Amino acid sequence: MQSIDWVAVLFRWLHVIPAIVLLGGTIFVRFAALPALGASGQAAQWLGAVRKKWAMISGLCILLLLVSGLWNFMMYRLDEVRDTGPLYHALFGVKVLLALAVFFIVSVMSGTSAAFAPMRAKPAKMLTLAAGLGLAIVLISGVLRGVKKDTSLPARPADTRLPTG
What we know:
The structure is a single chain. The chain is mostly helical. The chain has one domain. The chain has helices spanning 6-38, 43-81, 86-110, 117-120, 123-146. Helix 1 (6-38) packs antiparallel against helix 5 (123-146) and helix 2 (43-81) runs antiparallel to helix 3 (86-110). It is elongated, with a radius of gyration of 19 Å. The protein starts with 5 loop residues before the first helix and ends in a 19-residue tail after the last helix.
């Protein structure tokens, strides 16, 4: 009989759902709300009105993505990743850097700091960049799930492996 690692399932959900909310919200605002409101000249007013709520939602999503991503990596992928070779490591590093860039852009767009007002003055450009980076992260994640063990790497003693749960 098969068993289910419910902790692994929970943390997978805690990673995927906030990613969907953050990326989906960004795409909605950029490609649905801004064009609709831009035609009436109300985009800036609308963005100002939803900024506080979006800041809370995006902040929670970013926190959940950071915590669940670190948990998933440390508990369920670290031992497997050691045997995947340089391709996995390079793609994973790019994915993390892109995620940090998306977190920054979303935080700037939902924030109120005067230092980033010039970036908020270009919402279409910034949200297009965040959406594009987010889609690249999804594509890279799909590739990472398919990277297999690199059999050309030297074998390691079995006792150096971390428990996988």
